[in-house]
Amino acid sequence: MVGAINFSDYPEAAKKSSWSAQFRASIVDLQRRYGKRALVPVFCQVWDKPIYTLSSKHIINDAVLQANLFRIDGELLTRPGPRIARGAAQLCEKIELARQRRK
Question: I need a labelling partner for 34 at 20 to 30 A (CA). Which of 2, 27, 69, 74 fits?
Fold first, then answer.
């Protein structure tokens, strides 16, 4: 029979499913809080020698768009995984500060 997985039989899978749900919920929360606010121009410099910047197609741009600059721990935004939600939240908070200063 094909159906829902009984996670009690697979405790590691249950833990991963919980982490995945928390990650998705945190991203949805950021979209809800910041997604419709005024855009703020952002320049993302990853490295200075040689200068290395990002295009609009980079995953970090998705985090910038959630907040519609400041220093953010690079590990939180450049390494794919659950920590990117924390980095996106920090980025949204920093952009919100910039947005308020522009008023």
Answer: 74
Q: For residues 29 and 61, what is the distance between their CA atoms, to the nearest angstrom? A: 17
96 pLDDT band (50/70/90 cuts)?
confident
Contact 39, 56 (CB under 8 A): no
Q: What does the domain layout of the chain look like in residue ranges? A: 10-102
CATH class of 10-102: alpha beta
- 3-state DSSP assignment of residue 53: strand
Task: Give tens-digit pLDDT for 56-85.
Answer: 777 677 766 665 545 566 677 777 777 888
